[in-house]
Amino acid sequence: MGDIARQAPDKDTGEDLYQYLLERITNLENRNLELREQFRQMESEKRYIETQKIRYERELRKLKSEIEQLRSPPLVIGTVTDVVDNNRVIVRSSAGPRFLVRTSQLIDPDLLKPGVRCTLNQQSLAIVDVLPTSYDSQVYGMELVESPDERYESIGGLEPQIVEIQEAVELPLTKPHLFEQIGIAPPKGVLLYGPPGTGKTLLARAVAHQTNAHFLRVVGSELVQKYIGEGARLVRELFELAKQKAPSIIFIDEIDAIGAHRNDSTTSGDREVQRTLMQLLAEMDGFENRGDVKIIGATNRIDILDRALLRPGRFDRIIEIPLPDFHGRLSIMHIHTKGMNLGENVDLAEVARLTEGKNGADLRAVCMEAGMFAIRSEHETVTQDDFMKAIDKLSLDFDKHHINTSYGAMFA
Question: Which of 109, 130, 151 is the last residue of a domain?
């Protein structure tokens, strides 16, 4: 401004006046540009502040809405027992009594069916929302989230059994048109039985790895509950979840825990186990269609299972998992020693010949003990002598802790 306010030249000559006016016009133009730039910056800041104001107002409305929701009274959980018409429904509240209530116009009438869980307003008891189907937390724990690492290639000596379980479980899920072409219904279930340690659970884990179906696994003893009807409810919810997530596979390990012969027992515990078994029989092959749900059962005690559980329609294929023969033991030894650093003098065929009567778990223990003997002797490789020591050690431990019971006896 000091340049603009400068005094005019003393000499009133045309040249000086021209220079004075030209300089003043230049200063005014520069000042005008500065003011325009300041105006643009202020406009930009104004737009930014307005945007921030809108965002903060939106956040304020959201927080006020959340505060109102927190201040609102909780809803009552109820169950629909009967549907009178599109606007009136009979519900049973969690407290016990039944009420004839009205429904919200925002709820689809097709969702209101007997047995559906819903939320009720505390004052008017009008239906506010329909809740999804809920299952017991134990049932959700039976879902297999991560696929096991076992493959069919890691199972030795059970090639015929692997083919049978692939035909009965995997083929109906992957190629159902083959059964339609022949005109037969695919098998519904497979029962694996045999001595302990022969690979029944390992086969089920391999099936879970190979197939893309939803896999649920449960131990038979988990279905035995303390209170009347709880075990049957668990079985019912387990099959409902399997139908909802079909195609699916249910693996019931140690099925003899609930599938033993029914008798005239007078104890409440035995009667509850029998109720759970009857619910299992009804779900496996009852009035309602099971859908695309396959069942794999495993047991060491097929001799005590109820005859109704073994009939076709429930377990269409009963597969024996026997103790491995010589070639099976040799195949198992090759699988377990694949990652071991073996010496040149190791003869696995001789080891397989000396382990007659051993199961797959015993052979795995032989390989582990041989490696432990090699570590104890500070060897870089596992030698044949280490395997011989391992066989002698396991045989000695078994004889020392062996209980004089037969395989067919209860709790063997």
Answer: 130
For residue 373, the domain's CATH number is: 1.10.8.60
The CA distance from 363 to 343, in Å, is 18
What proportions of the chain, in percent to the nearest 5, are helix, strand and coil? 50, 15, 35
144 belongs to an annotated ligand binding site:
no
The pTM (predicted TM-score) of the whole model is 0.65
Beta strand ranges found along 142-264 (DSSP E): 189-193, 214-219, 248-253
Give the model confidence (pLDDT) of 177-208 as tens digits.
Answer: 888 888 888 888 889 998 888 888 888 888 87
One-letter identity of residue 368? M
The CA distance from 302 to 164, in Å, is: 19
Q: Is 327 annotated as a binding residue?
A: no
| Ligand-binding site membership of 336 (annotated) | yes
Q: Is the domain of 168 the same as that of 259?
A: yes
Residues of the domain holding 12: 1-71
Residue 177, annotated as binding a ligand: no
What span, in angstroms and rounded, lies between the C-alpha atoms of 143 and 251? 10
Quick one: three-class SS letters along 136-159? Answer: CHHHHHCECCCCCCCCHHHCCCCH
pLDDT of residue 7: 52
